[in-house]
Amino acid sequence: MKKKHILSSAALRKLEGSLFIAPWAIGFLAFVAFPLLYSFYMTFHQVKIIASGITYIWVGLQYYREILLVDGGLLYNDLLPFLKEMIMMIPIIVVFSLLVGILLNQKLFGRTFFRSIFFLPVIFSSGQVINEFISQGGGTLSFVERFNVVYYINTYLPEAWGAPIANLISSFVMVLWYSGMQIVIIIAGRQTIPASVYESARIDGAGSWETFWKITLPGLSPFIFLNLIYTVVDLFTFPENPIISKVNTSSYGISSALAWIYLTIVLSLLGIIFLIYNRVTKLTAGNR
To answer: In whole angstroms, how far apart are CA 106 and each of 38, 45, 129, 189, 233?
Structure first.
């Protein structure tokens, strides 16, 4: 007689999947979800650490009003110039990684060596390494100082945009440092496009320019979108980020409120990227 299984095969597969994901779920709840909710709770309380324990005094939206309305300098004086600089830096990194990734996918002599060179900064780009790199002037292009480019930018451009552009040019080498992972993603995405598609295009008489716009770029659009998300998250957790340095204040409530405001801004930017990508995807699909 055949033995009856207590659980069906589908239930067993679900149980196996749940057991495999259980360590991650427990770690996420304990080390990510709980601290997030706890910090959100502290934004509405004045937190004091005393000998007998931790006391919480309800203050409501007081810290949010102080940061956004009363003491705007805590957020706006550093955040707005930083946002302008990041808005200019994100497309530069994405386009640079796209071009280099396509180039390094070609059959070139020593391409493995060059791939390693571009990926090395990802391994060494810890906070301390980047701080030392910037403090020693390693991120500055030599011709910027030689031709006094920053002076002309600050002279002929409005101050609101002159300072972010000058900071971007002064640390332009950081684009190379922050493009390693994006280049790897583009290389991996380029290899998902079958070679037969390019052969068919060449047979039909399409040149390199046409194949780039009609085959390569549409095929890489999900990977470009992934690079956008990765670049935004990576840059907004940059060690030299002026907002992150201000989060570590003596007041737990103000620090938590500032962190949540900053998180909301980053999530809003990611939401805009999602909307633009969905709109572009629908437009390209409708034109096919």
So the answer is: 50, 58, 32, 13, 29
Specify the amino acid at residue 6.
I
Report yes or no: 173 and 141 within 8 Å, Cβ to Cβ.
yes
Show the CA angle centred on residue 147, arms to residues 145 and 149, nearest 5°: 75
Distance CA 287, CA 117 (A): 39
What is the per-residue pLDDT across 208-264, written as a single tens digit (0 to 9) for each? 888 888 888 888 989 999 999 998 888 887 766 777 777 777 788 888 888 898 889
The region that residue 69 occupies, defined by phi over 0 for left and psi between -120 and 50 for alpha, beta otherwise, is alpha
By CB neighbour count within 10 A (0-12 exposed, 13-18 middle, 19+ buried), where does 272 fall? Answer: exposed
Q: What is the mean pLDDT of residues 191-214?
A: 87
**pLDDT > 70? residue 146:** no
For 241, the token pair is: 């980020």
| pLDDT tens string 33-69 | 998 999 999 999 888 888 788 888 898 888 888 888 7
Contact between residue 118 and residue 100 where contact means Cβ atoms under 8 Å apart: yes
Distance from C-alpha of 152 to C-alpha of 157, rounded to nearest angstrom: 8
Residue 6 CB neighbours (<10 A)? 7
CA geometry: angle at 154 spanning 152 and 160, to 5°? 150
**H helices within 125-158, ranges in order?**
127-135, 142-146, 149-156
Task: Give me the pLDDT at residue 1, please.
Answer: 46
Listed in sequence order, the residues at least 6 apart from 267 whose beta carbon sits closer than 8 Å to its beta carbon are: none
Task: Say how far apart CA 163 and CA 169 lie, in whole Å.
Answer: 10
Angle at the Cα of 68 from the Cα atoms of 63 and 69, rounded to 5 degrees:
95
Domain boundaries, the chain: 9-63, 75-247
